[in-house]
């Protein structure tokens, strides 16, 4: 079976075995799977986005780690430095106008009320230095200069107070948005415990959405009468619509997982429910897994990134399906249905499930994709009893490869029976 043109080798959906050339042509024309660009082709837009994110992160780190901790001490120190410099410089050096730095520093370190206090203290310090600098004896020719300096200080002070107020209100709004996003994430994803039934697990979910912690990627781990059942998926698109689609998929999976004895029947129920809700051209790549019988796991593929099996000694196997299938929501375009397959798991093995945000993360000198299969072995080897540490190491390595920021949602799910 040939993969679709342009689809990387790691991707799960290479296209099902279609009996109708017309249907095959439809799938290729619609372009249902996301086809990443050639990893060796320059991508200046991504690099610009990455540099911008790094710059913003650096500014936030400086503000949160240094400026915010200094509080009033920084603007007060600025006032003290200007006063000392003016006194040391002598009467023939008028350095007091440098006091405008104090309100500006206060606007990024303290509340707007304290910024007002700093503005008043700066004005008082300038007034106290005026006789020493001879400002009171200045002639009519220099009065316009003094008036201009007073106007500039008042303008900077008012603007600094406004900046401090906006910063405070923005921080409060961000806190409120984050709280709502966290509540939505817990309600929708329901993060599982470190052990579900006989299966140990660790998960890392990161959304690339600004000011939110939930996006189009999804996962669920359930302990059912038929064994521990797992779903990892990726919704086409972004934003609220993707979240709503994820909610439909997760709701259908949580219901069907307890009702249907066969894993393929669970997936069929989810696909049917999704088909009633989404529009034309929308789909969800998904991978279903079931831990029932000992020493193995049953997998079912719906166009998703292939899982990995990492042995105790760090050997990595890519678990490609014998017959890849189309994503959820597109089953009506092809005849038949996907077939689950079983994979043995030995003691110490770790099953790694992820979304395409992991394997499509770009970085490195050539801007290539993150080589998950090549790098995960030593990071996870022998860590079946400490999956949290293993998933943290892989995520940190992913961030390092991507330059500290990700452009897509990420799910990393490690499971060990």
Question: What are its keywords?
Answer:
5-stranded antiparallel beta sheet; 2 domains; disordered N terminus; Phosphatase 2c, domain 1; 16% strand; 6-stranded antiparallel beta sheet; single chain
Task: Give the SSE layout.
Elements: H1 21-30, H2 44-70, H3 73-89, H4 101-106, H5 112-133, H6 140-189, E1 195-196, E2 199-206, E3 217-224, E4 227-235, H7 239-259, H8 263-277, E5 284-291, E6 296-302, E7 308-310, E8 316-318, E9 341-344, E10 350-354, H9 356-359, E11 362-363, E12 368-369, H10 372-380, H11 387-402, E13 410-416
Antiparallel strand pairs: 1-2, 2-13, 3-4, 4-5, 5-6, 6-9, 7-8, 7-10, 10-13, 11-12
Helix pairs in contact: 3-5, 5-6, 7-8, 10-11
